[in-house]
Amino acid sequence: MTRDTLEQNQIPVYFVTVALAIALGLLAPSASQHLELLVTPAIAMLMYAMFLQIPFLDLRQGLSNGRFMAALLLANFVLIPLLVWSLTRGLVDHPAILLGALLVLLTPCIDYVVVFTHIGKGDARLMLAATPVLLLLQLLLLPVYLGLMLGAQSGVVVAVGPFVEAFVLLIVAPMILAVLTATLSRRSAVISRWYDVWAWLPVPAMALVLLVVIGSQIVSVVRDIELLAPVIPVYIGFLLLAPLMGALASRVFTLPATAARAVTFSAATRNSLVVLPLALALPDGVRELAAAAVITQTLVELVGELAYVRLIPALLRSTGRPPAS
């Protein structure tokens, strides 16, 4: 099997993995505790593998595409937060679920969104080049959004320490290692070979993360499904309306079809796998339901992506506009 073949077949790999994770979690619930221990290292490995694919050293390439970046930021950090705020007002009496929903819906995806963008005939290279900006801005703005949308009346106290620890372990350390690896690979044959080996690993690493994340949490989702019921309409509403936010932002900046599709996929695809450890770092009275809410969004979103890859190209047809610049 070639690397291209693996990447071309990654979506079936992910869905088979999700099915296996659900079966494993439900048929062997005692294994979920062991799988949960693997969540943080598995996500750290995935982030390192993904960061190696992100052109941090060529960041100006993504930033130089002004209209695309403006539309992407408008969609993800203005329109989507407004949509999330309006959709989640019915959850104010369910603070744990509200927090989980906010964590996942306010953070744009930086990993498999590139894959779905490519399959959905969007500009995957633009999407990939923009991921460092999306990552840095969501880390800066998430605390602001949470403070505004949770409010003092929620009764949820979020300790800063566990969030900082998760941020360092899952974002900062893998990012620094990836940048160092990319830099040194240009000077060292050994590091270059290491870099080439890791180029194969994003798909297996993503599959591993899906396995341990869903396998470790699916029992909680099934057990608490009645408590989680209020958030499911929120996720379905987001699934239906988020692409329209991306399309609107693209229209404002008159993007060509492929760039508009990339913005739309970004607006509709969330960063659930990365924010799950943040949910697991919450206080005891909140952690389980918040984490289950994050996993529920993942399951809803993966089903929605199957529709997106067909509907988004149809929604945003080529109009012969010049490339974004």
Short description:
This protein is an all-alpha fold and 325 residues long. The chain has helices at residues 3-8, 10-27, 31-53, 59-63, 66-87, 95-105, 113-119, 124-150, 160-184, 189-198, 202-223, 225-228, 231-252, 257-268, 272-280, 284-315.
How many structural domains? Answer: 1
Tell me, briefly, the overall form: globular
By DSSP (H or I, 4+ residues per run), the number of helices equals 16
Order of helices and strands: HHHHHHHHHHHHHHHH
- Structural class, by secondary structure, is mainly alpha
Mind telling me the C-alpha Rg?
19 Å
Name the poorly predicted regions: 320-325
For the record, the CATH architecture stands as Up-down Bundle
Question: Could you name the CATH topology?
Answer: Na+/H+ antiporter like fold
Oligomer: single chain
Strand content: under 5%
- Provide mean pLDDT, rounded: 86
Membrane topology: Multi-pass membrane protein
Subcellular location: Cell membrane
Main location: membrane
GO molecular function, one term: antiporter activity
